[in-house]
Amino acid sequence: MTRRPARAKPEPAATLDPLAVTLSRIADALERLAPPPPPAPDFDAADAFVWRAESGALAPIKRVNRVDLALLKGIDRVRDILLDNTRHFSRGLPCNNALLWGARGMGKSSLVKAVHASVAREAGGALKLVEIHREDIASLPVLMALLARSERRFILFCDDLSFDAGDGGYKSLKAALEGGVEGRPANVVFYATSNRRHLLPRDMIENERGSAINPGEAVEEKVSLSDRFGLWLGFHHCSQERYLEMVRAYAKRFGLASPTLDADALEWATTRGGRSGRIAWQFTQDLAGRLGKAIR
What we know:
This protein has helices at 18-33, 76-90, 108-122, 140-148, 169-179, 202-211, 215-227, 240-254, 261-272, 277-291, and strands at 48-52, 57-61, 98-102, 127-131, 153-158, 188-194, 231-235. By secondary structure, the protein is of the alpha/beta class. It has a seven-stranded mixed beta sheet. A hairpin with a 4-residue loop joins strand 1 and strand 2 (57-61). Helix 6 packs antiparallel against helix 7 (215-227), helix 8 (240-254) packs across helix 9 and helix 8 (240-254) runs parallel beside helix 10.
């Protein structure tokens, strides 16, 4: 009778290939160190979000720092243009990217946030505001791809957008807005504010003109970034009467009665060296504090 060969016993752990064991431990350690994938954004959590490029996540903002649209005085024309453009976008109609440029403190970013709040109420919360910081512009394609997967509509907002010498981020922005193969997603519109109409400093453009083989083409490439914005909305320094109109509107809204309101507001502007919507708001906060009234 032929005896069957005995079954081989499992190899003890001590005799396993040391290299395989080491590689397995390294793989386990790397898996523990790797950050978990960001959770899918919950767009029902808020009406506004901030893009966190380092984690690839959208952080909901429960309370947006904004003023009511009716309190923005002296910018009626640009207000109506941006409001109409945003309404068209919320209804799925053709619209343009918008660049709000001009004097500091004249309500550029306040207008974007106020217009969003107004149109979002009309749209029943289907319109969301997403802020991307200037330093995260390079991640714009990733963010747009994330938003494109949603059925919601998004105003993508970048405050104080500009580029300095040696900064190539403007090329990424150009491609993401209109120039790429995919282009801007149909459910995303891009609004930006800047003190510069062309988003680039004059000396940067002049340097390109002086060093390029074809100066005209070099300058055209720099300036063409602004051409990606179909709307250029200019904000200019306000007159004394416009400034006082802003102050009076704030005082009326918050019940800040003062017999010397105009004189105090003008003195405040003189100490600040200028007049603007921001200075009017700062005066209003100072007045409310002196009167012992809360601003809500």
